[in-house]
Amino acid sequence: MIKRKMSSFTKTIFFLWVLSTKLSDGRIFTFKMHHLFSEPVKNWSNSTGKLSHWPAKGSFEYYAVLAHRDRLLRGRKLSDINATLSFSDGNSTFRISSLGFLHYTTVQLGTPGVKFMVALDTGSDLFWVPCDCTKCAPTEGTTYASDFELSIYDPKGSSTSKRVTCNSSLCAHRNQCLGTFSSCPYIVSYMSAQTSTSGVLLEDVLHLTTEDGHAELVEAYVTFGCGQVQSGSFLDVAAPNGLFGLGMEKIAVPSILSQEGLTANSFSMCFGHDGIGRISFGDKGSPDQEETPFNLNPPHPTYNITITQIRVGTAIIVGDITALFDSGTSFTYLVDPTYSKLAENFHSQAQDRRRPPDTRIPFEYCYDMSPDANATLIPSMSLKMKGGSDFPVYDPIIVISTQSKLVYCLAVIRSTELNIIGQNLMTGYRVVFDRERFVLGWKKYDCYDVEETNTSEVESYAVSTPPPVSAGIHNYSTPESTSKDIRNTDSGSCVPLRTCHLHISLLAFFGVVSIYMHMAYMA
């Protein structure tokens, strides 16, 4: 009798232990994202003296710069990377190195915490910051407000900094190690020409705050690159203070946070119509979101999906195509014959006069907007994904303002090799990159609203409105600045231990164990 009771007791304890260790999966850590052309980034860039000309939002130059940046960062897989870009007002050619990545966020690293403005990149894995610099981008005199402090990481200046040795499972270049316990070197090359970072791996605390009704401070140990040598566009303002890789490899921060039990291995990105955004680590979306599986290539997994059908107005284009879901690319790129079929069907249903080709922009199908234009006159678009879920496209066009009239263009560009679903088609959604279930999720979402997710409430932030990235007829007017106060909460602190997140779970666990032992004894 006692043996049976103890067996039941053991199973119950095991269940409670598993449950307690999973409690941390409910945490969501949210960061504010700044688009490349947001006012804070603009002001920072002007302060560096690197950017002599800033294109007016909604102009030909504005969209030309974004598209030119896409092509150069993706290299010849999109188009000829040697194409030049000049402005109609006689300004000098605008260099891609003066632009860089599409979104930035500010993170705090080390003890005491130091802020870094890092570029976000779903196409790479490593998180790195300038550190013990031999060759880095200049940071002197480039501070703009608290969100855009530029720093150089000092391992000796952080009491929680640790070396990552060559026997670490995250050390990918052991063949270059001097010994088992020497510092692990790293080098990462990027697709844009002659752009790379190299140095050694370190470990330190990343400062996080949960965004629910009971804000909790968490200091998570993460592995990152101490970027000693940068080359190419990293020496300009492409990634002036480091880069935050969001890929699927083990060394990526989302993977590390999940491995440590701090969050679910998933994150979401939210893109508003005016470019305001948020990235939320641990967010698995909501039960009613649409989903499609990733096409996994085990050696180098990416956020690649399959589109089985494209609807343009009343026309349907059938045929499986694989495409990279890339939030770091401004526009959407399709190879032939898919591109031609989509564009021709769009054109056959458009009711406005098509404009002659304009060498300033890469969009082939542009139209003069009629005075009585409205969204119902523009052919709609929707993607059907593998698994049957629909992905309605809220902004298949961009609207360009000229001196005399408005022009709209199909915001899809012909590609030479890669199919890419860019940020313009993601606008209006919360896009979930679920790396546990290997699915992409999406749901219509207003980045300004506070919405209950499946695990916690996501806060809105006080932000200034950046220029629109993609503007349809229904939202052409630039929205007024939207701001919501950050809720002031009394937050407890957490000591910088990699197991601090288990503290509450362990207390709860041992409390339950005590109760059950007492019950077993009384029985």
From TrEMBL:
UniProt xrefs under InterPro entries: Aspartic_peptidase_A1, Aspartic_peptidase_AS, PEPTIDASE_A1, Peptidase_aspartic_dom_sf, TAXi_C, TAXi_N
Residue ranges of every copy of the Peptidase A1 domain listed in the record: 103-443
UniProt keyword terms in alphabetical order: Aspartyl protease, Hydrolase, Protease, Signal
GO terms, molecular function: aspartic-type endopeptidase activity
Signal peptide: 1-26
Catalytic residues in the record: D121, D326
Name recorded for this polypeptide: Aspartyl protease family protein 1 isoform X1
Species for this entry: Gossypium hirsutum
Gene label: LOC107912848
